[in-house]
Design a protein that fits this description.
Elements: E1 22-23, E2 28-34, E3 39-45, E4 50-56, E5 64-70, E6 75-81, E7 86-94, E8 99-116, E9 121-129, E10 133-139, E11 144-150, E12 161-167, E13 172-178, E14 183-188, E15 199-205, E16 210-216, E17 222-228, E18 233-239, E19 245-251, E20 256-262, E21 269-270, E22 273-279, E23 284-292, E24 295-301, E25 306-307, E26 317-320, E27 325-331, E28 336-337, E29 339-342, E30 347-352
Parallel strand pairs: 1-3, 2-4, 3-5, 4-6, 5-7, 6-8, 7-8, 8-9, 8-10, 9-11, 10-12, 11-13, 12-14, 13-15, 14-16, 15-17, 16-18, 17-19, 18-20, 19-22, 20-23, 21-23, 22-24, 23-25, 23-26, 24-27, 25-28, 26-29, 27-30
């Protein structure tokens, strides 16, 4: 697992800048702007380029920054701070072994990062933001993406939306959010790119949050989703993937979970493992499987929990295929569970204490 060393040190950077556009190899471009409604554009073509940008204001309008780097071994660092308006950063990197670090403090922010190539790193941080968005898209192999979305004293995080899209093999995507009413989405694989051997992690702490993971055409991927708080919802989808492992942990009241392991001709979804552990009251789970040799293991500890609700179109756990296994354990009182299986060699075990 790749580690990002700049995460804690970014805010301590002392940046002294000149402005400009550079073409060639081993170029350095630095921009520093203070005040309202600043715009900055930096373009570099070649290898081993460095771009550093800082935009600061307190109480005024927002900033806008556009950066483009092409080549290998490029590094971009952006600090966007303050402002009553929207701060926007749009960064594109094409090539291998590139590094992008963006930090946006306070206010309403928007960060868009696109990386095409292998062994790239993207880190986006929102601190004390509201109604902000962050999106990272990576096409290639061995890439690492991290979105950190947390509050600060006097500046809590609320209503933010973050997205990581990774297409390729051996990639890692991590989302960490605290606060309320956030949205986190992690997508790996599509019709053009198979995505094998990837790792994904979504962690949310707060209430009213939503988490979504989807995988298409990928094998041997490992995903972990953790939610702590009340009235959160999460959904997980695998289409035409084998040997994938999804581990879900939810703690709180009134949380909703739904899953789908499906097949897309001519491929089937086989040998996938979904483990869900939920602690709290009035929690709900529903989902469906279409494939072979898949395993679903659900444990719910609390009162008035349900497997099967109108929140999902297919009530309860619905399985179509052969050799699938569903194990459901519910503890405490007033719980209910519904399991439907069509096929051969399927096993369903329901235990209620």
């Amino acid at each position: 697992m790749r580690q990002l060393l700049k995460t804690t040190s970014l805010f301590a950077l002392a940046l002294v800048f000149t402005a400009g556009m550079a073409f060639g190899q081993s170029n350095d471009a630095s921009v520093s702007q203070s005040g309202d409604e600043n715009d900055a554009t930096v373009e570099q073509v070649g290898s081993s380029n460095d771009a550093a940008l800082t935009q600061r204001t307190f109480g005024g309008a927002g900033h806008e920054a556009d950066l483009y780097q092409e080549g290998a071994g490029n590094v971009t660092t952006v600090l966007s701070q303050g402002g009553a308006g929207t701060n926007m950063v749009d960064l594109d990197q094409v090539g291998d072994n590139n590094d992008a670090t963006i930090a946006q403090l306070w206010g309403q922010n928007e960060a868009i990062v696109g990386q095409t190539g292998d062994e790239n790193v993207a880190n986006v941080q929102h601190r004390g933001s509201f109604q902000s968005t962050a999106e990272v898209t990576q096409n290639g192999a061995g890439n690492f993406a991290e979105i950190l979305d947390i509050g600060q004293t006097g500046n809590p995080n609320t209503g933010n939306e973050v997205v990581i899209v990774q297409n390729g093999n051996s990639n890692e995507g991590t989302i960490d959010q605290d606060g309320d009413n956030h949205s986190a989405t992690l997508k790996q694989g599509n019709s053009a790119y198979t995505s094998d051997g990837n790792y994904g992690d979504i962690s949310q702490e707060g209430s009213g949050n939503t988490a979504s993971f989807s995988l298409k055409r990928g094998d041997d991927n490992d995903v972990s989703i953790t939610q702590t708080g009340n009235q959160n919802s999460s959904e997980y989808s695998v289409v035409s993937g084998d040997g994938n492992d999804i581990d879900v942990s939810v703690e709180g009241t009134g949380n909703r979970t739904r899953f789908s392991i499906d097949s897309d001709w001519p491929s089937f979804s086989s040998s996938n493992v979904l483990s869900v552990d939920k602690v709290g009251d009035t929690n709900y789970l529903s989902g469906s499987i279409r494939g072979s040799s898949n395993t679903v293991d659900v444990t719910q500890d609390g009162n008035d929990n349900r497997i099967g609700t109108s929140w999902y179109t297919k009530d309860g756990v619905s399985i179509v295929g052969d050799g699938n296994s569903a194990t459901i354990t519910q503890m405490s009182d007033m719980n209910s569970a519904s399991v439907t299986m069509n096929g051969s060699g399927n096993t369903a075990t329901v235990t209620q204490n």
